[in-house]
Write a structure and sequence with these properties.
40% helix; single chain; 4-stranded antiparallel beta sheet; 388 residues; 12 helices; 13 strands; alpha/beta; globular
């Protein structure tokens, strides 16, 4: 750091130089991200509340009320009238809180100290972080050929040390929805905490159901579901970072409480202390701005584009890993190595991702990906295939 301060103009000149290296969602060439450009109203509200700290809510009472409203709005999507929870940084933090709650609850009320969690192979890597941080043993549930949890084998994985079962509504790699209705029955029957990771699916499944799509129940309408992760900064079109953790009952927050004596609120259950209230305000604003009507239109447009991509891929001889349930599609080519295909696409300035299970090119059709982008992408894929 120099002794002499720099001018605003100098600083922005430096920052602009670095930002030029970033990709922009608006270019439509980011095809592997579950995030997208947020609604402009969310951006404006985020800036308006940029200095609010929900870690000390007594100083920001109005922002805390906004967070409560946002939590209630999100709960209305997930079949719960009075949820408990917080707007957090994203799915990782939300999943961490859920696993901490499950562990602490089992430790306090079931005297379980060697905690195990049952997760599918399709689970987000945040559960590995949770296991590392909280000393949990991961037990992987068996998977069916369609890359969903094998419910018939799930119950056999339960032991006296099982503190939580995790199911997914919108898997990170393939966008699939587990049979959560059946998993809920198992969790309820065995008195085990069930967490549903709907970080991606939570802001699209309810609206597709409104439009007539057939999905099994996946939310708090199922008695076994104790908590849910849902990310407003994905299909919810809020600003980054905006995640959410919802609990059915306040007792799950209570088992995580620690003393925070020097703050206006003397107890705290979140993982982080300082929490930017801007994320909560932006989430509330964009949900009110979009309404169910706006989100339903957005969801249907995403599925239309996904189907356009799927049909184009099949016509050219590419192979679809599984029929897309949400706006994620994974594919391979019978004659081209997946890593090499990703390299060739990057050479054409497309940013795709590669799924691990199964190994395939993974595309997420977010709002910034237009039909014109998809047509251009398909044209490049045809060019690549024609050369093999």
């Amino acid at each position: 750091m120099d002794n002499k301060p720099k001018s605003r103009e100098e600083i922005f000149k430096i920052l602009d130089k670095y930002q030029e290296k970033d990709m922009n969602y608006s270019e439509g060439r980011i095809l592997g991200s579950m995030c997208t450009e947020s609604e402009s109203i969310a951006q404006s509200v985020f800036y308006k509340f940029i200095n609010s700290n929900l870690g000390d809510p007594g100083l920001f009472k109005g922002t805390k009320i906004i967070e409560d409203h946002a939590i209630k709005l999100i709960g209305s999507l997930l079949s719960i009238d009075n949820p408990y929870g917080h707007i957090v940084t994203g799915g990782t933090e939300a999943n961490l809180m859920a696993m901490r709650a499950a562990r602490n609850y089992a430790r306090k009320y079931k005297n379980i100290n060697n905690s195990e969690i049952i997760i599918p192979k399709s689970a987000h890597f945040s559960f590995k972080k949770a296991a590392d941080i909280f000393g949990l043993k991961i037990v992987e549930a068996d998977m069916r050929e369609d890359y969903k949890i094998d419910v018939s084998s799930l119950e056999s994985k339960i032991t006296k040390n099982t503190v939580a079962i995790v199911a997914i509504a919108g898997t990170t790699e393939l966008g699939l929805v587990d049979s959560i209705d059946k998993i809920s029955e198992i969790a309820k029957r065995n008195n085990i905490y069930l967490h549903v990771d709907a970080a991606f699916g939570g802001f699209i499944i309810p609206f597709l159901k409104d439009a007539g799509y057939d999905f099994p129940e996946f939310d708090f309408s199922l008695e076994g579901v104790c908590s849910m992760t849902i990310d407003p900064h994905k299909m919810g079109l809020s600003t980054i970072p905006s995640g959410c953790i919802l609990f059915r009952d306040k007792k799950y927050l209570d088992v995580m409480v620690v003393e925070s004596p020097y703050l206006t609120k003397k107890k705290q259950s979140t993982i982080v202390g300082t929490r930017n209230g801007a994320s909560a305000a932006a989430t509330y604003a964009v949900m009110e701005y979009m309404g169910r009507e706006g989100y339903t239109k957005f969801a249907l447009e995403a599925m239309e584009k996904t189907n356009t991509l799927k049909e184009g891929l099949l016509k050219m001889g590419y192979e679809i890993v599984t029929e897309p349930e949400l706006n994620i599609i994974a594919f391979t080519h019978p004659n081209i190595d997946v890593n090499h295909l990703a390299y060739l696409l990057e050479e054409k300035n497309w940013r795709v991702s590669i799924s691990a299970y199964p190994k395939a090119i993974r595309i997420v059709i977010m709002r910034h990906v237009t039909l014109d982008n998809i047509k251009e992408f398909l044209a490049d894929l045809k060019c690549i295939a024609d050369n093999f």
